[in-house]
Amino acid sequence: MTIFKEMFIANVKELIRDRDGLFWLLAFPVIFIFIFGIVFSGTDESTFNIGIVTQSENIMIKQMIEGISDIQTFNVTQGTEEDELQALERGDRSLVLMVPDIDFNKVSQGQPIEIPVYYDASQSTTNQVLLPVIGQIFSQMEDMITGQVRIFEIQPQPMQTKELTDFDYILPGILAMSLMQLGLFGSLQFMNLREQKIIRGLGVTPLPRSTILSSEILLRVIVSLVQTFIIVAIGKLVFGVTIVGNILVLCGIVILGALTFTALGYMLIAFSKTSEAGRGIIQVVQFPMMFLSGTFFPITMMPKYIQPVVKAIPLTYLGDALRHVMVGATASYNLLTDLGILTAWLVVTLVLAIRFWKWE
Amino acid sequence: MNSIEVSGLKKYYGSVKAVDGISFQVKVGNIFGMLGPNGAGKSTTIETLVGLNKRTGGEIRVLDLDPGKEFDRLKPQIGVQLQNPSLFPRLTVREIVRLFASLYPDPLSIEEVISLVGLESKEKVQTKALSGGQRHRLAIALAMVSNGSVIFLDEPTTGLDPQARRHLWDVILLLKSRGVTVFLTTHYMDEAEKLCDDLVIIDQGKIIAQGSPKDLINQYFVERAIEFVDPGFTEEERNGINDLQIASRVIFENEESHIILYTDDIARSLTSLMDYAGGLSKPIADVIVRQATLEDVFLKLTGRGIRE
Question: Which of A81, A232, B14, B206 is least buried, going by the fewest C-beta atoms within 10 A?
Fold first, then answer.
């Protein structure tokens, strides 16, 4: 146990003193988050899609709608309540107004006309700008109509739409990708030790070779949890992604993912002789996996003939499981299927890695 | 009593006979040297003795254990310095000594080992920033920290400056004074002469001479050596030296353009040689007269210098 502890400490020091390596390990996912965060959260800020639902034939209402439509930054659509609310859930509307018929009895009694306004509660920036603007529009109309009496009462109706923004979809993908790279490229550390004959040299000491690997793997798992923490924190604090899942379940999936890709990495280097070859083969594996796993594009967007590949690669299932647990996305597969297939990959690659392993 | 017993050891790589049937014994508490040029089979032998290589044939006992089969029992009892030291690049000197100390049941103290190899001032330096000589000394520290009863050193002083070499010799002699058995390889004759109680000279995988340095020199040389820089003799003039009948053997080291004469009558040989060279108007400068060394033994046995 002392030997394991000392070896583990040695590994930690090796890792944290490799400033370049550490920078890429932790900064790479962060850079990805910001790139995608900015690209996907900046959709059409200049125009807002406003949905209006009304059955009223009242001339005042019609004028009001025209008035709203005249505002340049608003793109107004009219439709049935059902259609418009669905559009809001899809993220196609920033706001839906329910405009009832004007009941003049109510107005004369001084009761305001209630106008429910539906909006996506998670889109906080939009709402902070849009709701006051809508409020102002109505009070201007009141001025025009009556001069003073309050006719309309805006009733904000926040909706927690289940539909995810593109970025919500991508954040777990970035985590999955980071875990993949951590596991695959992490195996190169062993490759370097092997190439520099450090492993061979340690062979004359009582250090069990398995300890060299197991302490390294433990370190990898811990780094994966640190990465998860960073990615989740930035997603949440900077881009307002709501993390819905249980944090322990999330950690469990992260560890399974880190182990699966570590095993895959070790299997790949077991087949390569030099670290150059190892790096090459890992690139060949990780690059297509990154794009075909549905990390950045939903799998349904991909052509049919590529679907079997998509269904074979482990990153697909890690991404799916993480999306499910982190942001509550409707999973493409059952969570148990995801975990089962990841475990299968882990077992198979581990067996192959052990079978073809080269210590020297 | 012997720490190491080797008989008929063979190690072949395909058709290459790296080690081809060597036998020797190392007494407890001795410094034993294996001397030979690069590629003679020294490293292969050491790696086989410490269990890194599987032998093709023969018998080995180290501390009465077979390194091929009882490696795990042997490892805690030996310290090994290989030519490629196992240094994690970003650990400091102290950290890596500490790591190695944690691997052995009864290690020496970290401070002691570091000061023995003279790296106190580098304690907090990462190993990748060490010079070649410092890395070497650290590797020896790692072998020593094991507190093993046999220490294997593979060319411990190769690449060191003269001062560092002397310092390391003192360290090796100190190990001996503590009762440690040392097995070392070297291609430095002076090192083997200075340190070793016993040695074998190995060339092309075979032992060509065996004994204490003194025995070997006495056995092969009662003469002294006259060594000088070739003043530019032609082939014919060189052969003329042989015809002078002043030396039992004349060796031309073409690479260093040195000529060495072995003789038991220094005065007569020197006079004749000077006259001969003067007669050719090619006076000889820089003459060294010395006792025969292991280098001479090697030259005599193989007809080539050890560094060629």
Answer: B14
pLDDT value at B262 more than 70: yes
- pLDDT, position A90: 73
What residue in B sits closest to A14 (Cα-Cα)?
A: B90
> Which pLDDT value is given to residue A41?
60
Q: Do B86 and A202 touch (CB under 8 A)?
A: yes
- pLDDT tens-digit readout, B146-169: 999 999 999 888 877 888 888 889
Band of residue B92 on the pLDDT scale cut at 50, 70, 90: very high
State whether residue A22 sits within 8 Å of chain B by CB. Answer: no
Distance from CA of B90 to the nearest CA of A (A): 5
Q: Are B185 and B33 in contact (CB under 8 A)?
A: yes
In this prediction, residue A159 carries a pLDDT of 64
Nearest to A206 among B86, B99, B104 (CB): B104
Distance from the Cα of B114 to chain A's closest Cα (Å) equals: 18
Residue B217 has pLDDT above 50, yes or no: yes
3-state secondary structure A67-111: HHHHCCCEEEEECCHHHHHHHHHHCCCCEEEEECCCCHHHHHCCC
- Identify the segments of chain A with pLDDT beneath 70: 40-47, 121-129, 145-150, 158-166, 296-301, 329-331
Query: For tokens 């040389």, what's the residue?
Result: B221
CATH of the domain at B191: 3.40.50.300
What residues does A298 pair with on adjacent strands? Answer: none
Query: A14 CB near a chain B CB, below 8 Å?
Result: yes
* pLDDT score recorded for residue A105: 75
Q: Which tokens is A297 given? A: 């594009």
Reported in sequence order, the residue ranges of B137-192 that DSSP labels E, i.e. its strands, are 150-154, 181-186
Does A202 sit within 8 Å of B87, measured CB to CB?
no
Confidence of residue B143 (pLDDT cuts 50, 70, 90): very high
Q: What pLDDT is recorded for position A46? A: 54
Tell me the C-alpha distance between A254 and B213, whole Å.
64
B246 and B131 in a single domain? The answer is: no
Beta bridge partners of B22: B9
Domain boundary among A115, A143, A159: A159
Can you tell me whether residue A329 is helix, strand or coil? coil
Residue A131 touches chain B, beta carbons under 8 Å: no
> What range defines the domain where residue B75 resides?
2-217
Does the CB of A19 have a partner CB in chain B at under 8 Å? no
- Contact check, Cβ <8 Å, A6/B84: no
Smallest CA–CA distance from B80 into chain A, residue: A204
* ipTM, 2 dp: 0.75
Q: What is the DSSP string of B13-26?
A: ETTEEEEEEEEEEE
CA distance B130 to B117: 14
Q: Looking at chain B from residue 68 to 127, which residues have their Cβ under 8 Å from any Cβ of chain A?
A: 72, 75-76, 78, 80, 82, 84-91, 95-96, 98-100, 102-104, 126
Tell me the average pLDDT across B78-101.
90
Facing A10 at nearest CB: one of B50, B99, B104: B99
Q: Which residues of A touch B96 (CB under 8 A)?
A: 10
pLDDT value at residue B120: 92
Residue A360 falls within a domain, yes or no?
no
